[in-house]
């Protein structure tokens, strides 16, 4: 299954150097470095909310892509025949265009569909304009919310089904920091419905309480 794992590992989406979004990304990285994640997610003064959400969405896509890429060999058709986040939560894939009716599929297949779909949205200049002065579309916020809701499912699957592998690879600190950053971000701007976060609710409360 060597070819599958490389297929699921999407190329990193780069933000063009010298662009305003690149400056925003640098700002995000600098505040993250301070270790205060609640501070790091706040909208920088005078910045456009859509642009801030766009930059961070691309960044989370790259992070999750990398994290999932490290455990693809453990996430197979046989180990994960359904895309789940524990016994109570199962996800079926539909993108509304190619696959209109939700289909049941294995976790690696689901995540491949999901990451390919996200990448197509991020590469669409009408949705995620990379040029200065090009306005974001009216439906940008709903697109971003759908992307983040789906990216959350990859975190949920990794935590529920592959955390032992993450521990063996000594990556739990990296995963926890990435997820905590993600959660603080979506909470700050109210981007994911609380119901959607239910599979990791206990973890979310634990991460949040450490930071008050």
From TrEMBL:
Annotated InterPro entries: MOB_kinase_act_fam, MOB_kinase_act_sf
Pfam family, one: Mob1_phocein
Claim: S-adenosyl-L-methionine is one of the keywords in the record: no
Gene3D superfamilies listed in its UniProt record: MOB kinase activator
GO molecular function: kinase activity
Coiled coil, from the record: none
Entry keywords, A to Z: Kinase, Metal-binding, Transferase, Zinc
UniProt binding sites for Zn(2+): 75, 80, 157, 162
SMART domains documented for this protein: Mob1_phocein
Keyword Zinc-finger: no
The protein's name in its UniProt record: MOB1A kinase
Organism from which the protein derives: Serilophus lunatus
């Amino acid at each position: 299954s060597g070819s599958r794992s490389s297929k699921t590992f999407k190329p990193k989406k780069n933000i063009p150097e010298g662009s305003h979004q690149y400056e925003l990304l640098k700002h995000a990285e600098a505040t993250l470095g301070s270790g205060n994640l609640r501070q790091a997610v706040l909208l920088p003064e005078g910045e456009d909310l859509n642009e801030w959400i766009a930059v961070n969405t691309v960044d989370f896509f790259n992070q999750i892509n990398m994290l999932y890429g490290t455990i693809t060999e453990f996430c197979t058709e046989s180990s994960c025949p359904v895309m789940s986040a524990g016994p109570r939560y199962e996800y079926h894939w539909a993108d509304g265009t190619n696959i209109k009716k939700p289909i049941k599929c294995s976790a690696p297949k689901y995540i491949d569909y999901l990451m390919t779909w996200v990448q197509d949205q991020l590469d669409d200049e009408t949705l995620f304009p990379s040029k200065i002065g090009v306005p974001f579309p009216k439906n940008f916020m709903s697109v971003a919310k759908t992307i983040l809701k789906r990216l959350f499912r990859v975190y949920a699957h990794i935590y529920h089904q592959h955390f032992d592998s993450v521990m063996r690879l000594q990556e739990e600190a990296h995963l926890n920091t990435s997820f905590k950053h993600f959660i603080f971000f979506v909470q700050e701007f109210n981007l994911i419905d609380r119901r959607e976060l239910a599979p990791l609710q206990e973890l979310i409360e634990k991460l949040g309480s450490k930071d008050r």
